[in-house]
Amino acid sequence: MKILLAVCLVVFSSFTFGKSNEQTVVLISIDGFRHDYIEKHDAKNIAKLAEQGVRSEGLIPVYPSKTFPNHLSIITGRYPTNHGLVDNNFYDTERQQKYSMGDGLEDSSWITALPLWNLAEFQGVKAATFFWPESDARINGRTPSYFYHYSTPVPNRQRVDQIIEWLQLPEQARPRLVTGYFSVVDSMGHRFGPDSKQVKGAVKHVDELIGELWQRLQTEVDPSVNLVLVSDHGMAPILADKMMEVDELSIDDNLFTVINAQTRLLIYANQGTSEQQVKSLRTRLTEMTNMAFHVESEKQLAKRHFTDGPRVPAIVLGTKAPDTFATRPAEQRSDGGTHGYYGTREMDGFFVATGPALDNNKKIERFENIHIYPMLAGLLGLELLTEIDGRADVLQPILETD
């Protein structure tokens, strides 16, 4: 559904701090950068930024700990059932359509919340995005002033160059919100696992780029820029011999639509499938104790803000690392890494921020990523136009009050 911005402003606190109308924010996501990678893989430049600014013990992903749900939660301040993208791939029983990553480009009605770049643009603050998931979707008929289509092949260093070029534009054309995205750490984590030399190499590469970006922000742009580094989730090792074949569950595709989310199985009731048929399948799956999955209860899912709506499955099967679901033949499976599990520290991302509007040398407890949105809106001096799930008071203590 489209968000109706004609409604009056929702009465939510939008903190404004000091010279908020003069602040610039560069928000960078390093996909799959686990909370402990700074030390584990020796990310020297990010460590320095953490020492001079703010670092959390972890960044708690929303459920499920997947790329698209979490990037949208960071940039909208909403849980997945509220911003619309409940997984990387899912089914909508009302639309009778499947969503796949990036489908918002052709149909933005998949996204049901207001991204920060649109919040900025609606209030006269220009925004620029480089590959943030769904940042090329025309939500409410609007895109950021500057953007690249997600997944277009572009060298990582060129992304840094482009961010600097945007910030060097004349004042009237210059964005004050810039988001960037790097996927290589996540890609290597999937292929080789979080403890691998390949992930270490990917972390080193991105760390060098972040160091270069920060140095150029200070010398070529404006030292008043605030740099915020985040990740969408962490990574856990998985094993090929711990992969469960979906077909062994014998789920009737005349009655159910099944989406394999690797760490979870999403089972949707088709039109005409009765509640008794759903109950019967749930009971049969619950009794399959020989396989390493569990049936998530409605109570458990409700605690994770994953309940109600046509995009929430009738049955969700969960796993714990290193177990996953598989549809590929056994000879095509391999060890590696993945994410999507619930409630483990291995799923935590990271949060590091530095700049004139942020506190110095401060460590904070881990927090949910939905709270980043109101903090950034406050830094940019933006009014909140819609209801959100994040709270501005969670990160208010990290902000410079002088």
What does this structure look like?
With 402 residues, this protein is an alpha/beta fold. It folds into two domains: 20-238 and 343-398, 3-Layer(aba) Sandwich (Alkaline Phosphatase, subunit A); 240-334, Gyrase A, domain 2 (2-Layer Sandwich). The protein is built from twelve helices and 20 strands. It has helices at 37-40, 44-52, 67-76, 80-83, 116-122, 156-167, 184-192, 197-221, 275-286, 298-303, 372-379, 392-395, and strands at residues 24-30, 54-56, 59-60, 90-92, 97-99, 127-130, 146-148, 177-182, 225-230, 236-238, 243-245, 256-260, 264-269, 294-295, 315-318, 324-326, 336-338, 351-354, 362-364, 367-368. The strands form six sheets. Strands 7-6-8-1-9-18-2-19 form an eight-stranded mixed sheet, with helices on both faces. Helix 6 (156-167) runs parallel beside helix 8 and helix 7 packs antiparallel against helix 8 (197-221). The longest helix has 25 residues, at 197-221. The chain starts with 23 loop residues before the first strand and ends in a 7-residue tail after the last helix. 48% of the residues are buried. Residues 1-21 have low confidence and may be disordered.
Say how many strands there are. 20
Strand fraction equals 15-25%
The total domain count is 2
What's the mean pLDDT score?
93
Mind telling me the CATH class of the largest domain?
Alpha Beta
